[in-house]
Amino acid sequence: MPAHPKQKQTGSTARMLAVYGKGGMGKSFFTTNLVSKLALLGNRVLQLGCDPKHDSCNALFGGVSLPTLGDVWREFKEAGREDELAPHHVIFKTTIMNGAATVYGCEIGGPEVGRGCGGRGITFGFDMLEKFGLSQWALDYIVMDFLGDVVCGGFATPLSRSLAEEVIILCGNDRQSLYAANNIASAAKYFASMGGRTKLLGLVVNRDDGSGIAARFAEKINLPVLASIPLDRKVRELADACQLALQDPRFDALFDRLARQIIDRTLPTVKMEEVRPLEYKAFLSVFGAEEPDIVPEGATAEELFGEHQIRQPKPIITLDLMERAVGDKPEMDAPTRMVVKRLLKELGMYVTEANYDPKKGMMLTVDGHTTICMGNADDLDSKLAILAALQRSGEQFRYVDLRRPASPFYR
After folding, report:
1. What is the assigned CATH class of domain 15-285?
2. Rounded to whole angstroms, how far apart are CA atoms 191 and 209?
3. Maximum separation of any 2 CA atoms in the chain, in Å
4. CA-CA distance, 409 to 411, in Å (whole number)?
5. In this prediction, what percent of the chain has a pLDDT beyond 70?
6. Strand pairing category for 15-21 and 141-146
């Protein structure tokens, strides 16, 4: 029975939901059935696959693997027809439940396996969709299925750019999926503290074994459990056959209840300032475990090199970066000086050189070896948030282009 949604007017903005969670937890299963139920309740819904594996929409389309935005764009570019690329080349539609509703799907995709950065593919895909008029499409919901255990600027796009109005974190009762959930909550809280508008809706426990561990974690982190989806062999077989779990009356009722709460905005209220991501020791306590109060013994050079000749460590050269920071130079203009000071104060980044490029704008060298193309001081909070996310990811980078915070580039 339809939930009587408001009619979508041309030029209005769809409500954007993002589903995050550890790989392999069933995000595509959950997203597909939620999208289908929202559509069956009378809404126009797009499922947006944001994983380089590009398998989010397979079950929605009955097993069909959709051409990805990235692959189609490359085909048009190689053929010299880049300007002819249009939405209908990458956005597809199908009917579900014997024609009861129409749904839309798109797979952003990414580079070929092992041949590029998946995060860059995601940011590129969102830029292309914006060019196609994403914010103007007459849709009620866009539900994004995101890879959630990769800490990368591209995969954090809905959080860093506030593209998603709300985020659902999918997890199980196991330590690894809840560790990922804790990291996702931490990232969402961070971007909210930087002025972001994205809010967490709560957790959905998939393949619930009844142990209650996820509920215990949710209580500690101060997030509600929106739904618990039981582990069920029949439904798993439906999913493996690329069919909807809504064919099972119990699962249909479960997704119907959750979808109606999303539509009516009757889910428990989450205040981002009250979300409490757990430190490692507190996280372990959820499972009744403790971190041993020891420091593991380091491996010796003899163990690492074996019978090979032991290499002498290279001398460490101290650059006295603090004293060389260009923020102390009187000839620096005010916007550059402000950027330099905030990089140092907020991120601990020491700018050792600052230049202005006629085409690229403000160019900064950090710690003597990393180049940051800032462009200008506009949208500085977003740019610093991206740099902070890169720092936390542990990824190595030597060049970052932040001229367009909506699609940052790094290598």
Report:
1. alpha beta
2. 33
3. 75
4. 7
5. 83
6. parallel
